[in-house]
Amino acid sequence: MYVCLCKAITDSQIKQAADEGDGSFRAVRESLGVATVCGSCACEAKKLVKASARSSTEDQLLYQPA
Ligand code: FES
Fold it and tell me: Of 14, 23, 37, 52, whose Cβ has the fewest other Cβ atoms within 10 Å?
């Protein structure tokens, strides 16, 4: 699903960038260019970055080495 229509950026691209980067919205914005034109996608993009960060934290908490 497209989140940023101005730059044609999808939710999958945002999640992937958040997982590969430091998980901050600023880093995702700089790497993809999301929310750099009209800015109307910023709230949704931030939600996706937060959800991605929360998901990877939960993965770390669930992983318990033997
Ligand atoms: S919709 Fe993302 S900058 Fe306009």
Answer: 37
